[in-house]
Specification:
alpha/beta, TIM Barrel, eight-stranded parallel β-barrel, Luciferase-like_dom, Bact_Lucif_Oxidored, CmoO-like, Luciferase-like monooxygenase
Length: about 325
C-alpha cells in the first residue's frame, strides 16, 4: 500500500454545537456560522453536525435546520450530517428534508446516516414511540432512502418531492464492525466515530476495505476518521486548552454532564484514576499540541490507518482559541 502524505488528506469539521458555560445555544449557533466561514476560507472540505437529543451541552438536535442555516451563510463548503440517526425518522421525511436542502444548496449537501438513537433510552422512546426497535431496519431504511432519491421512483405511489433525482451523497457512520460491513456491502463511504469510540476503529476499517463492493456511488473504499484536535502556538497552551475536553469527557464517563467548562491549569484532582483511564481511552485519537507536535503525531496516525479524510472536532472553551486551532491544523495539512 502506498504511504499517504499529510498533503493528500482531505480535512473537515464536525461541529458538535457544544454549549459552553455562561452561554446559550443562541451563542453556539452564531459561533458555528463564524466557524464555518473560517473553515471555508481555510480549505476545509465539509462541515457536519451530529444529531443528539436531551443533552444540555449539545445543541444540534434539529440537525437539518442547522445544516440549512450554515449552508445559507457560506458559499462553497459542503455541509451535512454526521449524522442523522435514521431510526429516529421515516426515510421519506429525511429524503424530503435533504432533498429541500440539496435543492437550495446544489452540490453542497452530504447525508451521513447512523443507527444509534443519539441519546438515552428514555428519550429514544419519546422520539421513536412504537418504532422503538427501528434500528433493526437500518439497512432496509437506507435502501428506501436511496429509492426516494432515484429517478426511477417517478412512477411510485410515494415520492419525495423535492429529493427525487437529486445526487445527495450518502455516508454510513459507525463505531463498530457492523457498520463497516454494511458500508462495504452497500458500496458507500464510511465515517468512523474515532473521536469518542476508538476501540474497534482499526478492526472496522480493515473489515470495510477487505469487503468493499464497488457501487454506482463509489468505486473504491473511502474512510473518514473523526478525531479530537486542540492546536495552539505552543504545546503548553494546547495542553491547557485541552483540559476543557478532558473535563467534558469526565462528565460523559460519570453521567454528570455539564456545559463545556473553561480550561484549568492541571487535571490533577479534577479526575480520579478510573475516570482518567476511561476518559483517556475514549480520547485515544486526539491530537493536542503545537503544529510541529500535531504534524508528527498525525503522520504517524496516517501511516497506521491510511485514512482518506480526517474530520476534526474541537471542544475549546474560548471561541477565538478554537478559530485559531482550526487555522493551525489546516496549516499542518497544506
Amino acid at each position: 500500500m502506498n504511504s499517504k502524505k499529510l498533503t493528500d488528506l482531505k480535512y473537515s469539521v464536525l461541529d458538535l454545537a457544544t454549549v459552553i458555560q455562561g452561554k446559550t445555544p443562541i451563542d453556539t449557533f452564531k459561533h458555528s456560522l463564524e466557524m464555518a466561514n473560517h473553515a471555508e476560507q481555510l480549505g476545509y472540505t465539509r462541515y457536519w453536525f451530529a444529531e443528539h437529543h436531551n443533552m444540555m451541552n449539545v445543541a444540534s438536535s434539529a440537525t437539518s435546520v442547522l445544516i440549512g442555516y450554515i449552508a445559507g451563510g457560506t458559499k462553497t463548503i459542503r455541509v451535512g450530517s454526521g449524522g442523522i440517526m435514521l431510526p429516529n425518522h421515516s426515510p421519506l421525511v429525511v429524503a424530503e428534508q435533504f432533498g429541500t436542502l440539496a435543492s437550495l444548496y446544489p452540490g453542497r449537501i452530504d447525508l451521513g446516516l447512523g443507527r444509534a438513537p443519539g441519546t438515552d433510552q428514555l428519550t429514544a422512546m419519546a422520539i421513536r414511540g412504537e418504532n422503538f426497535n427501528a434500528a433493526h431496519n437500518f439497512p432496509r431504511d437506507i435502501q428506501k432512502l436511496q429509492q426516494f432519491f432515484s429517478e426511477d421512483n417517478y412512477d411510485s405511489k410515494v415520492r419525495a418531492i423535492p429529493g427525487e433525482g437529486l445526487d445527495i451523497p450518502i455516508w454510513i457512520l459507525g463505531s463498530s464492525p457492523d457498520s463497516a460491513r454494511l458500508a462495504a456491502a452497500m458500496g458507500l463511504p464510511y465515517a468512523f466515530a474515532s473521536h469518542f469510540a476508538p476501540a474497534h476503529f482499526m478492526t472496522a476499517i480493515k473489515l470495510y476495505r477487505d469487503n468493499f463492493i464497488p457501487s454506482e456511488h463509489l468505486k473504491e473504499p473511502y474512510v473518514l476518521s473523526c478525531v479530537n484536535v486542540v492546536a495552539a502556538d505552543t504545546d503548553k497552551e494546547a495542553i491547557r486548552l485541552a483540559t476543557s475536553v478532558q473535563q467534558f469527557f469526565v462528565g460523559v464517563v460519570t453521567g454528570k454532564r455539564q456545559l463545556l467548562p473553561p480550561p484549568i491549569d492541571t487535571m490533577e484532582g479534577a479526575w480520579n484514576y478510573f475516570e482518567q483511564e476511561a476518559a483517556e481511552q475514549m480520547l485515544a485519537y486526539s491530537f493536542f499540541g503545537s503544529p510541529q507536535t500535531i504534524k508528527a503525531d498525525l503522520q504517524s496516525f496516517l501511516d497506521q490507518t491510511q485514512v482518506d479524510e480526517v474530520m476534526v472536532t474541537s471542544h475549546i472553551f474560548d471561541h477565538q482559541a478554537r478559530l485559531r486551532s482550526y487555522e493551525l491544523f489546516s496549516e499542518v495539512l497544506k
